[in-house]
Amino acid sequence: MVAEENWVYKTARVLALLTIKPVFRLRVEGSENIPREGPVLVASNHLSTLDPIVIAYGVPRPVSFVAKAELFRMPVLSWLIPRLYAIPLERGRGDLSAVKAAIRALKEGRVFGIFPEGTRSRTGKLQPFKTGTAAIAIRTGALVVPTAVIGTDEAWPVGGGPRPFKPVSVRYGPPLDLSRYRLDRKGLAAATEELQAAVASLLPPKYLPEPGETA
Questions:
Q1: CB-CB neighbours of 142 under 10 Å
Q2: Highest mean pLDDT: which of 13-17, 99-103, 176-180?
Q3: Second label for 119, Cα 20 to 30 Å away, from 125, 148, 154, 185?
Q4: Is residue 107 within 8 Å of residue 1, measured between CB atoms?
Q5: Average pLDDT, stretch 93-98?
């Protein structure tokens, strides 16, 4: 079952058009690379809490991200967040819970947003990717759209608040089919390397670590 935009999601998209786009001078490139149907993983570098919002803005289909399970138990948010296609992530269950959530969403033919680094980069430099995204792609056959967010580290830095009028852009690259790799250690390493190289190719040099440097 492919997720259709409900009125809440549509309203959020309009609000993003009226607020996020002008406030952060948001620019989107490569939306045509996102498949219009079927399971899709949107895999991006991660710089800021702003990332899921700007990534979802540029995708012409509803996008599911994981969110802290506590938010689903709060007044108002417990009603709102599920209608934005967010999926609860229980504390302490980490990667396993996120993987299961991604597989469920993809089996329903949905778009799932994921950050293969596993956490926000504190330096802005691209960090080594974990193999979880590749494992999900191989297991489900979902296409993976390499994605780069640029400028969100300055527009909404880690530990800080929003800084209006700092330019932000999102780039979506051509989709990758990683299903040809085997679901073993060697296959996961090769698929992860291909995905990280694809994301890196979309980023300006300042976001790329120097050889031998760890972000």
A1: 28
A2: 176-180
A3: 185
A4: no
A5: 64
87, 66 Cβ separation under 8 angstroms: yes
Q: Which two tokens stand for residue 100?
A: 């299961």
Q: Over pLDDT 90: what percentage of the chain?
A: 71
Helices 185-200 and 132-140 meet at what angle, rounded to 10? 110
- What's CA 208's distance to the chain center, in Å? 18
Please state, in angstroms and rounded to a whole number, the distance separating the CA atoms of residues 90 and 72: 10
Which residue reads 């880690």 in tokens? Answer: 158
Q: Where are the domains of the chain?
A: 7-154+165-203
Domain 7-154+165-203 fold is Glycerol-3-phosphate (1)-acyltransferase (3.40.1130)
- d(C-alpha 173, C-alpha 34), whole Å: 8
d(CA 165, CA 16): 14
The answer to whether the Cα torsion of 128, 130, 135, 137 is positive or negative is negative
